[in-house]
From TrEMBL:
It comes from the Bacteria. Keywords: Membrane, Transmembrane, Transmembrane helix. This is Lipopolysaccharide assembly protein A domain-containing protein. The chain crosses the membrane at residues 36-58. It comes from Pedobacter psychrophilus. The lineage of its organism: Bacteria, Pseudomonadati, Bacteroidota, Sphingobacteriia, Sphingobacteriales.
Length: 103
């Protein structure tokens, strides 16, 4: 097992033990209303919200691909900055006839 899996299992066991030890009723004030709720339920709600917020904050961010454009002032056309660059990963769209002509 990986270290991450062991840590998750240990934390899950500890959280379960803590939840089971706190099952008594407590008064919870929500704005002007007093509610009697089990500590177990309140701790579970707080844990779930904390987990959701952690997932949202820790998710990987998307990298935005920015295209750098420059304006050709002589004729007003917009050309990409890498006009002369030949991308070797692009699919070759030449037909066999065109290849024979070039060679």
């Amino acid at each position: 097992m990986s270290f991450k899996t062991i840590v998750i299992i240990v934390l899950a066991v500890l959280i379960t033990v803590i939840f089971m030890q706190n099952t008594d009723q407590v008064m919870f004030t929500l704005l002007w209303k007093e509610i009697y709720v089990s500590k177990l339920i309140m701790m579970l709600i707080v844990t779930v919200f904390g987990f959701i917020i952690g997932v949202i904050v820790a998710r990987p961010k998307r990298k935005n691909k920015e295209v750098v454009l420059e304006t050709n002032t002589s004729n007003g056309n917009i050309n990409s900055a890498d006009d002369d660059y030949v991308d070797m990963k692009k699919k070759n769209d030449l037909s066999d006839e065109d290849r024979d002509y070039i060679n």
